[in-house]
């Protein structure tokens, strides 16, 4: 066992400097992600007892994200990508401070906190996606995301259960709210540490080129459709687990425990898959994630009780990392191909991709609000996820088409460039492994 661990550490150390720094920076920041994703929604639910406010909070986050992606594109011409990346991480702590300072959770206060959190996610993901694209190639992206997912899932074992029981032990409402404030302060400190570590990297900004386009190659539209289907689930899943656990299990301690059950197995599984899987295996990984997601939805709808929530969370712990492990390399490979074909800034595709995600997120959250308003909260929590899971199965067909067409386009580009006596990679590390998917 120790020999295997030593071998994996040596393999990681063989990766180039920026690869290691980005992984370690994201690992530190991952300590706060369970707080942002789960416990902020639980805080809104606890203090308002209104699931629709949780969804409205999420919608304001989703609105802030694409706007900040756009702002980030302009700011990259003036500021270091490390600075903007760090601002994104630190803003998450600021948003939580705003939320905890509200005496009453009215829609205005929730909206302001949500917009700030959306800006945090916008700066974080816009720069994180570009850096991940820039420092990886198609051959090591499975390993990169497998490694990240391993750390994220291990952290998801420790953080939710510790925070959940810490909040529950505090007891009455006043003490619980104090616990949330203490957690917020810790989050802010961690974001500062992650930001400091980020500056150890030799990260370069994208080339100062035009990054706003309204017309793309038809191939890009297929990825936007896939992004919309991904966003459809995100619009529901970011807040639904917290609402389900608060309603059916009742307390943050149970919430943290449910998040942690089975996560160790999932973490090891994701690392092994990321380490051993080849680009050709991505469609199988993606399909497995979609099936786990569908099973989670079906069990939740069939039982809709404490047992159903536990089963739902167990399947979700496997489904989400499987989907991400396959999705991001597929997305980045499409960007590699089209940036090479259309000779555009990679950030142009990262920005436009967010539009597809936003459309899906809006529809997903809107589906919940519609069912909650016209039927009941129970109907929304019980049946919306089944509708979304069934629609998500279409992603497998779309992904298969994207991968097959990508292989054909790579062949065409290589043949075209070979006729000119060269393959144009402009020294970009992401393009050096494009000969196979």
TrEMBL record:
Pfam family, one: MFS_1
Gene Ontology MF term list: transmembrane transporter activity
Region (Disordered) location: 414-437
Membrane topology recorded in Swiss-Prot or TrEMBL: Multi-pass membrane protein
Ranges of Basic and acidic residues composition bias in the record: 414-427
InterPro entries for the chain: MFS, MFS_trans_sf, MFS_Transporters
PANTHER family: INTEGRAL MEMBRANE TRANSPORT PROTEIN, RESISTANCE PROTEIN MDTM, PUTATIVE-RELATED-RELATED
UniProt protein name: MFS transporter
């Amino acid at each position: 066992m120790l020999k295997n661990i030593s071998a994996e550490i040596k393999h990681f150390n063989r990766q180039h400097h920026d690869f290691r720094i980005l992984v370690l920076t994201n690992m530190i920041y991952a300590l706060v992600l369970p707080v942002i994703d789960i416990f902020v929604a639980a805080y809104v639910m606890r203090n308002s007892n209104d699931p629709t406010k949780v969804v409205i909070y999420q919608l304001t986050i989703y609105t802030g994200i694409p706007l900040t992606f756009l702002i980030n594109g302009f700011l990259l011409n003036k500021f270091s990508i490390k600075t903007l990346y760090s601002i994104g991480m630190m803003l998450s702590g600021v948003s939580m401070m705003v939320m905890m300072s509200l005496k009453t959770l009215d829609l205005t206060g929730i909206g302001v906190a949500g917009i700030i959190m959306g800006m945090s996610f916008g700066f974080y993901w816009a720069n994180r996606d570009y850096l991940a694209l820039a420092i990886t190639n198609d051959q090591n992206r499975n390993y990169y995301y497998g490694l990240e997912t391993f750390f994220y899932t291990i952290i998801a074992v420790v953080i939710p259960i510790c925070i959940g029981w810490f909040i529950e032990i505090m007891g009455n409402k006043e003490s619980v709210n104090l616990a949330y404030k203490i957690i917020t302060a810790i989050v802010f400190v961690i974001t500062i540490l992650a930001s400091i570590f980020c500056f150890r990297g030799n990260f370069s900004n994208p080339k100062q080129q035009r990054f706003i386009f309204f017309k793309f190659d038809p191939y890009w539209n297929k990825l936007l459709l896939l992004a919309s289907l991904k966003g459809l689930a995100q619009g529901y899943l970011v807040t639904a687990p917290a609402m389900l656990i608060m309603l059916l299990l009742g307390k943050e301690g149970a919430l943290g425990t449910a998040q942690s059950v089975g996560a160790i197995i999932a973490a090891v599984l994701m690392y092994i898959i990321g380490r051993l899987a080849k680009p050709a295996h991505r469609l199988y990984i993606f399909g497995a994630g979609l099936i786990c997601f569908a099973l989670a939805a079906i069990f939740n709808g069939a039982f809709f009780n404490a047992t159903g929530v536990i089963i739902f969370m167990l399947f979700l712990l496997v489904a989400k990392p499987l989907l991400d492990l396959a999705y991001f390399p597929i997305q980045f490979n499409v960007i590699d191909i089209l940036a090479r074909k259309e000779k555009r800034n990679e950030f142009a595709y990262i920005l436009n991709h967010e539009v597809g995600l936003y459309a899906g997120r809006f529809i997903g959250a809107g589906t919940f609000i519609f069912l909650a308003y016209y039927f009941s909260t129970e109907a929304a929590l019980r049946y919306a996820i089944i509708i979304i899971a069934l629609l998500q199965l279409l992603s497998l067909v779309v992904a298969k088409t994207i991968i097959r067409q990508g292989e054909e386009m790579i062949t065409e580009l290589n043949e075209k460039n070979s006729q000119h006596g060269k393959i144009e990679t402009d020294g970009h590390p992401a393009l050096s492994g494009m000969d196979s998917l």
